[in-house]
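[job 0412] stage=fold_complex status=start
inputs:
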Amino acid sequence: MKQSFLCVGLDADIRKLPACLLQEEDPIFSFNKAIIDATAPYCVAYKPNLAFYESMGVRGWVAFEKTVAYLRQHYPDQFIIADAKRGDIGNTSAMYARTFFEETNLDAVTVAPYMGEDSVTPFLTYEGKWVVLLALTSNKGSHDFQLMADEQGERLFEKVLRKSQEWAGSDRMMYVVGATQGRAFEDIRRIVPDHFLLVPGVGAQGGSLEEVCRYGMNAQCGLLVNSSRAIIYADSTEDFARVAGEKAQEVQRQMAAELAARNLV
Amino acid sequence: MKQSFLCVGLDADIRKLPACLLQEEDPIFSFNKAIIDATAPYCVAYKPNLAFYESMGVRGWVAFEKTVAYLRQHYPDQFIIADAKRGDIGNTSAMYARTFFEETNLDAVTVAPYMGEDSVTPFLTYEGKWVVLLALTSNKGSHDFQLMADEQGERLFEKVLRKSQEWAGSDRMMYVVGATQGRAFEDIRRIVPDHFLLVPGVGAQGGSLEEVCRYGMNAQCGLLVNSSRAIIYADSTEDFARVAGEKAQEVQRQMAAELAARNLV
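[job 0412] stage=fold_complex status=done
writing structure:
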């Protein structure tokens, strides 16, 4: 029992890698491998962000596939989320589902809800796989449309939470809720008391773990809190992996304390 | 002057390719190349749909890059749209922009608006490149959230059209409006009279070109109408490219008639 609900975001940007890696044959994979080995004892999930791999074209896609294969082989208990924010008409979403659940064997994929039911359901046809649907995101622009309210006062992110429960239950669907959203977690928990929430935005984006736990945790924990930059880029010397491990351990200890305070360990 | 506003969607699905191509070294690229050579006289744009390439992993990404390079070399006047429906927090959207505007040199990318301003603006920092923002899509699920209305009666897709004009003008931004949306084009043209609209959904999805022109065309045409399956999979024998060319020509002739009827040629 790890006493952790930490997800480490693998946002490997070639322009930010420690200089010592740049001579490697596949710097991105070498970086990920070192980060994974150092942080795996403290986390329960990894979240490669597809944008960072695609931005390097074929080379990046190779590094992505190698990273997933490495995790599967050496850390089979880790949950792997493709952070891809996909969503398109049915036959196209089916192809994205094939990408992440067949071509690469991930556990979950983040999906954008704008296009509605038939853009999401093709991801739900895979036994044991999860959709992580965007609800209330961590960024400033989340206010532009997600907070729009209808005549009954229901906001867009609430409508997404409510309607999407018609498509799958808490065994197949999670929601993205930004760590920066504070007490909105209370509103969200009224609609989805039992679901897992994937919470980005702790660390570089300014969200507070303590606040997320206070307002977002349920009786089964129900949280996966992601940290990317604050862990993987904590150090840029040859020591980067050890420092990343320490940072992950620090977060894990805070998580253990939050779990203990609620008798969840 | 081609008298065309046709965009051909390159949704190459390995499971649907003519059998005669399956022995080729890169069947997807061979298919695209033949389709492009046959249809280029009748269209002004191509729209590779990323899902279809990603679903084949590295092989698919290679085929995507080769397709773009082939278009650039042989048909430099064709406008190339990455149909990717991306959109994420600022630093991640910046990586997607790098993917489509630097790593591969496309002209435009489709973007999903759910995450708001800072998820879209990183795509707008590239001179001469375009964002094609989802407004009112062609699928059934478009009704789930896009038609939600606020207290003043403004619907989500209208809010997207209105707000996004603060981020860029009609020289950098287009909108996706499904061909299946009929008279909603009139509402849309009231908000964005001058913008180009990228219109999918003619053909396999049941939209009508004549209706799209009646309600959506402006004084500069202002439309890019996409057809994918109805052209590229019109025939599955060795004759597939010739038949695709004929289908494209058929659509182009209808377009020429629509343009002529409005004195736009």
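[job 0412] summary: Chain A has eleven helices and eight strands.
[job 0412] exit 0
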